[in-house]
Hints:
- It is a single chain.
- This protein is mainly α and 136 residues long.
- The chain is 52% helix and 9% strand.
- The protein has helices at 5-10, 14-24, 36-44, 48-57, 59-71, 95-99, 118-121, 123-135, and strands at residues 80-85, 106-111.
- Helix 2 (14-24) packs across helix 3.
- The model has no long low-confidence stretch (mean pLDDT 91).
Amino acid sequence: MQPDLPELLVGEHIADYLRYFFEHWTVQRSRLQDSIPDYIAALSSPGALRAGFDDYRATTVDLEHDAADLAAGRSVEIPVQALWGESGLPAGMDVLAAWKPFAPNVFGQSIPDCGHFLPEEQPEALLAQLQPYLSS
């Protein structure tokens, strides 16, 4: 199978590609240092990079499916916990309001002093939020 443009651009530079995100999408950069080799190894596995990009390639179809579900009145009725980094990609957005049409029982909050990588940047704060939800 011939690689697509994103795979060709990243190619053998997976470490540099990932380091860009670790540098620009994090608050607690030092907490990711030990995880970086694991991320590089995982995305260096055959097909992993393509699969990672495929998630983004599916955005248009995902949005069409979301719109169809919303139009049909379908939603997730169980409680849904949404957590995000206070300085992550959704910073400044009303995340709960965005999820409410799709999951009326959504609840959650931002994790302070955190970017995109919650488990690495703020593992204790993440666990403190997840434990009560998972125990219920």
